Amino acid sequence: MSQRLMDDMIKSHKEYSDFKQNYFFDDVLFSFQWWFLVLLFIVLWIIWIILVDKKHFKSIILVGLTTSLLAFILDDIGLTLDFWAYSYQMTYFASQLYTVDLAIIPVFYMLLYQYARTWKIYSIILVLLTFFAVLVAEPVMIKLSIYNLLTWNIWYSAPFYILIGIFAKWFADWVDRKGE
Q1: Is pTM, for the whole model, over 0.85?
Q2: Number of structural domains, the chain?
Q3: Cα(65)–Cα(145) distance, rounded to whole angstroms?
Q4: What is the CA radius of gyration of the chain?
Q5: Nearest CA among 29, 33, 23, 104 for reference residue 71
Q6: Which of its termini does the chain have fewer beta carbons within 10 Å around, N or C?
């Protein structure tokens, strides 16, 4: 790549960053959607703190870290490939939707793992939660103009929710068995 092209990319990125910062402070910060995201983030973590089973804390946290990391990676890929975009975020310096990647995804999977210890029950509830995410949660985020589908369809998310859940449980159970 020539230096001229790199300089043009840096200039474009700077212009985009300035635009994004202005947009955040002028239109996003303290909007209804911003408060919704912040409060949802806080409430979910309070619920988790109240409900977490301290006896299985390490494996539950491992599920949360695993699912959050996978959500971040997949979110970054989707944003980079212009599958979707976010109009509202908690901070202007993030492209990912922190409320989803750092609260909704890990808290729901951790609670699922905590309360559904057998594979049979876990799988059934995982499928039900996937339908809830695709039929309720994502449409609410779209209706609130937080989540914008560009080339993505909400049904494409379903296999990822299921695969993330299967991998997280398998990995946490595997680590638990190795630790015994």
Answers
A1: yes
A2: 2
A3: 28
A4: 18
A5: 104
A6: C
